[in-house]
Specification:
The complex is a heterotrimer of chains A (682), B (379) and C (329). Chain A contains 25 helices and 27 strands. Chain A has 682 residues and is an alpha+beta fold. Chain A starts with 7 loop residues before the first helix and ends with a strand. Chain B has 379 residues and is an alpha+beta fold. Chain B has a four-stranded antiparallel β-sheet with strand order 1-2-3-4. With 329 residues, chain C is mainly alpha-helical. A two-stranded antiparallel sheet of chain C has the order 1-2. The chains are: A alpha+beta (682), B alpha+beta (379), C mainly alpha (329). Chains B and C meet through helix 7, helix 8, helix 11, helix 13 and helix 14 of B and helix 1, helix 6, helix 7, helix 10 and helix 14 of C.
Amino acid sequence: MKRHATNVVGFAVALALLGTAWPSSDARAQAGGLAASGLVGKVEGAELVLDKAQMPKTFNEAPDLAALVKAGKLPPVKERVSEEPLVVKPLHQLGKYGGTWRRGFLGPGDVENGNRINASDKLLFWDYTGTKIVPSVAKAWEMSPDGKIIRISLRKGMKWSDGAPFTADDFVFWYEDLYLNKDIVPSPISDMSADGKQGKVVKIDETTVEFQFENPHFLFVELLAGDTLIGGGQSVRQAQGFTFGAYSPKHYLKQFLPKYSSEDAVNQKARAAGYENWVKAIHVHKDWSLNSELPTLGPWKMTRPINSPTFVLERNPYYWAVDTAGNQLPYIDRVVLTLAEDAEVINLRAVAGNYDMQERHITLSKLPVILENQAKGNYKVRLDLALHGADTVLQVNQSFRADPEIAKWLTNADFRRALALGIDRDQLNETFWLGIGTVGSPVPASSSPYNPGKEWDKKYANLDVAKANQMLDALGLTKKDGEGFRLRTDNGERLRIQIQGVKALLPWPQQGEMIAQHWRKIGIQADVREMERNLAMTRVRNNEHHIMMWSNGGTELLYLFPRHAIPVDPTEAFMGPEYAQWYVSNGAQGREPTDPEMKKIFDLFRSAPGKKDEADRIKIAQEIWKILVDQQYGIGTVGQSPAQFGVRIVSNKLGNIPERVCIAQHCRTPASSHPETWFFKE
Amino acid sequence: MKLAHFFGFGRTAEIGSAEDRLAQASQLKLTWWRFRRHKLAVASAVIVILFYLVAVFADFLAYSDPHDTDSRRSYIPPQAINFIDDGAFRPYIYGLKGTRDMRTFRISYQPDLSRKVYLTFFAEGYSYRLLGLIPTNRHLIGLVDPRPEDNLFILGSDLLGRDLWSRLMVATRVSLTIGLAGVTVSLFLGVLLGGVSAIYGGAVDMAVQRLIEIIRSMPTIPLWMGLAAALPQSWSVLQVYFAITVLISLLGWTDLARVVRGKFLALREEDFVTAAELAGAGQMRIVFRHMLPSFLSHVIAATSLVLPAMIISETSLSFLGLGLRPPAISWGILLQDAQNIETLALAPWLLMAAIPVIVVILAFNFLGDGLRDAADPYG
Amino acid sequence: MLAYMTKRLLLALLTVWAISVLSFIIIQLPPGDFVDAYIANLSASGSVVSMAEAESLRILYGLDQPIYVQYGKWMLRVLAGDFGESMEWKRPVIVVIGDRLWLTVVLSFAALILTWGLALPIGIYSAVRQYSFGDYVFTFIGFIGLAVPNFLLALVIMYFSFTLFGANVGGLFSPEYDLAPWGWGKVWDLIKHLPLPAAILALAGTAQLIRIMRANLLDELRRPYVVTARAKGLPDTRVILKYPVRAALNPFASTIAYLFPYLVSGSIIISLVLSLPTVGPLLLKSLIAQDMFLAGTIILLLGVLTVIGTFISDLILMWVDPRIRYQMD
């Protein structure tokens, strides 16, 4: 196998070099007031031991499992952790077994809450800094020099949570019996295609699988590590009605497939279990959050489903990771998530000290209250700063058509720049981010390799009312009404721009109200429309919105999660749903952009996966960011803040907790800080 | 007593002077006399009138633009006004300076004792149209030569630094008129359908009764939700406002229809109606000349009891995010702003938005009770 | 009599049918469908969904079919006793509701008892001592419950009971009983948690009942038989409690049926604030998520319960009060 030139270490080093300076040196965040708070620490976390010589040879286990082994109900720990377990070096010390991690969740729609705890069931993952790809379920990976074959090596003797062997067959089963089954997955995904051609999954031997493509797919390793359809892991990608994540327990799921018996037999079985047909049944059977019998790979397996008032996860006795002393992980016995009907209650319960670790659904604006109760609730607050550029981006719909006059202005670069200059970002930061965020354009943090350079951080992101007015006047929007608002050029009525906001991750409608006040000074009337989330999304898909407010979280790795930076995914194409359709359908649907800059972005983005050299891909991403800032398709405001999953409430009883963690989309907070190494000190 | 009613109609009886007055008085007058005995109801009537005056002069009573935001004024507690300056009545406030403590992340405001900002009556402020007609920028009170960061906050400010008092004034107008408009629609539907149901009876009555039963059997919130969610999002605030009004009233008319129908049926058996029929009066004349006046007060009473329900509905809908949405300002929206623990902990004064709601609903209820007690003046 | 009852029964069935159609229409009113709502929810929580997946979900749930087909299919299943499957909870609707329905009933029942417990004595007192100081004070207290938006009351009470007394935040069970199987301990735990939400819920309905009771009793007290009884020197308590109160209770009873949907509607908001596992928040969420069969079934069930309640209270009234029986003939 000489064609596999790049090895594990080589790839990791390359990335690590590029990312050396990443989150640890957020100078802006550390400077000034935030440092005084003492809430933002240094990025740290559990590390993997990849050197064979340092790996433990003997293994220990939790007392309750030891008792089961003694009773003959469970094989010895050495057989359970596989021959080549993942060795994790806990952050501070070896932990103690035991305890229940209490947490809150919002119901069956909040499955991501559990997914993120179990996210180490991904093939590849990122280290705690979020910059380096590391092994997880896969022991190692290699890419052929031509980028057409990606080889994954599995751990010898690794087991599913029910004790059955986990082998290459489980990948082939996923590929042939689930992914290629049109009843289950009606259309193939782009992750699995290189330059328009679908790849395939091939078993080489029991512990070796290959993803084979006809064209180079240099991005594939990053896709496997990222929070993508192919790399997401069984927990997230085979829950919620989806069927991705590249492997699936063949020995368990085959009983529900027609191929292994008959259509009648599986349908009968499905109906007996209360489902309409086998397709509906299998979507539940392969969902780890709903089916407690499903074999899984995560540190905890589910024992009470998410559709009950308490969502409970218990230690997976076959978990394939150990600490440096050979103690099988996780340390914590179980995770109990209690249902709250409303996020407000989750916050109040967290403040009351009812949770041991909670960062999800905690609201930044409640920080003063949360801090006040630290001693009473026996917890400590940590702020984790994000890497993406803006928690609030005004995404301007470029494919808007319903009103030609409005469309004319939305697609005018100077108009958008004037709007950008008309926003007082410091006001927003003070009011909605408690002064914690960083104001600027939508580009990722300056320490990120994808950041196009200092001069782009604040471009068009400083308040300049005079210049904005001047630009709007120059565009011909000179006529104003009695209240000082500019008039439309077609019928002389007031020019009204709609800002669509959803009360979701942030209080966007309220922010919109403030921005509308700022725009009064440049004579622009903004109508803020607060609406229900799915209503807003439906409007976006129907190309009805002018401007949509949303975060660009995840775009710090542009190739893994581009949708909130550029309109390439019709699911949430805030910047132009018709253009996104045109892009994904290769011109078959939607509408071709007339804007040469937008087309340039599309061409650049399309060319990236074919570039072998990571540095080239990064350069392309920087090019895209430059165009995005220059054109202001998305108007950035405030970001690099703890507003999304960054206000972390941690019980003082817990050990091995990092001061600061990576909260980017691909870090799958809290998974990249290895919750299986956390433990209860007393 | 009912006979006295009958004989009292349009005839002068020769009895003693006090009783004379009673006998000669029209029904409305009798109702009024009786109503006056209900002290709480009278007081409530005054309060309701005051509230509607606020609604009419909302912009005049507000002193700062209810939409104007400023992060430097976020969560300012209610401000104390000093009335006496140098021994003379010259109200003033101190300038405020806010700083955020980066350990607690709270903003605290210290008065700048060296800088007094004086208050004045009929001050200039933001522009509006008085009674919707006369353009002006005069407000009841205001500051003299304020700096941009100076502002008066009688009831404190919200997260966005907007003045609660001014917002309350405008919200009062919105919420009270929404209630009134809603009641009008309800009243129309209620009287029409209740009346039709009673007059025609049979299949019509059956159909209307079924409709009422269906509507009353449905939990109201899903009904509102479905209907509110169906409102086109492109509608302006004003359109949504009226749509919400109609929605609320669509569900509120059933009570009125029942009252009207019940009263109609009861009155039809009354002697004075029979007498009118015998006297050869036409059906329309009987309904409008004889029957309507005698249950008008009942309808008024029922209406005044439906109104607070409308106001509560508006606040509930806004709380669920289904009613009016910001930037509209209503009581419901102000309460929704106060619906979180940071408000309770950091800005409890925002809860004061509940006070006018409570007061006006109490007032309407007592008023309604008084009216109903008085509605049957011969009882 | 029998004919009348049959007629009433048929009408009740008609009403139930109308409610089922209406509930289905209401759920369909907002633009978009379950899959849209689902994707919106997932993307806001940091998940990735593609258009192709969305389409496959739509086919899976039969959302690609016309509404009347979906309604027809649902109705056929309902008639067979199967209410369909909740799209969001991925479980049969009846299982999802079952967990919560009886908690709703318990809570509503507790609220009902409290409402009566407050409204009856206050109503009687206010009628007998009309315009007295006590009348004003008690009516005032009753009305306060009506006037204070109960969602606000719920949040304020929850927050201060936590900050001042360190009480549990929301819910109907203590954390230690959350996972426990049913037993006396858990029942007692539930009973301990009931009074607060029940009181908040009850307060809103009390004023209305006070008013009805007061008005009815006032009417009765003016009747000649009461005057006669008083004139004959019967003690006040006996005069009032023996007949007028009983007579005044009749219309009171007929409102019971409508109290149920009212309490459930009211409980949606306070259950949301207090995080109570009742059908209220479930209904709200299923409406937002456009989880048709779940929302439809809840509305339908509530409608049916109300219709049954009305029917029974009609029968009782007919049996209790001969005057009503005459009207029917």
